[in-house]
Amino acid sequence: MAVESSPTVLGTLLPERSLPDASGSLHEVRQKESQATLIAFVCNHCPYVQHIESALADTVARYRPEGLRLLAVVSNDTLTHPGDGPDGMAEQVARAGWDFPYLIDADQSFARELGAVCTPDFFLYNQSFALAYRGAFDSSSPKNGNPVTGDLLEGALRLVLGNNDVPEPHRPAMGCGIKWLEAP
To answer: Among the four 23, 29, 136, 148, which has the fewest Cβ within 10 Å?
Structure first.
């Protein structure tokens, strides 16, 4: 069943954190030289992510020269969804042509801190690491027949990279719900 993202207060600061990739190398979430930081909560098994994953790679390639940094993050419980673990991540990187860090939020604390609820779920931060956009890639979904354009995220990227605000409302992201760990 599809889940929609809930509103997040614009201006909320990106926390100073580091997360590991599948090989265990740590990546700082914040990099001072970035003009914009996009955090994308994704996973290998979700049809909503698979639907846009190649277009996401193309979007990042277009905006990276302008200072965009993308960090893909998987927060799903890999005990219940082992295909979202390191092997599945490598499969997805190869399939989608991703050349950006793909990080693991094993304890789900980063997803909870940002308020992520679904895959894909996009959080775009400006140069000061303040949240500027929380929303959808575009209006497409695997079954609605709308073309994959990335227009909503690209519009937000152009504004943020131009040091402008992204007018509200932001269309909520929609996708598979994050697979949360069972409470102890």
So the answer is: 23
At 1, the pLDDT band (50, 70, 90 cuts) reads low
pLDDT in tens, 8-32: 899 999 999 999 999 999 999 999 9
State the DSSP string of the chain: -EEEPPP--TTPBPP--EEEBTTS-EEES--TT-SEEEEEE--SS-HHHHHHHHHHHHHHHHHGGGTEEEEEEE-S-TTT-GGGSHHHHHHHHHHHT--S-EEE-TT-HHHHHHT--EESEEEEE-TTSBEEEEE-S-S--TTT------HHHHHHHHHHHTT---PSPPPPPEEEEP-PPPP-
Q: Is the peptide bond before 169 cis (omega within 30 degrees of 0)?
A: yes
Cross-strand bridge partners of residue 18: 28
Domains assigned to the chain: 2-7+32-177 (3.40.30.10)
- Give just the sign of the alpha carbon dihedral 98, 171, 43, 117: positive
In Å, what is the CA distance from 49 to each residue of 66, 128, 166? Answer: 24, 28, 23
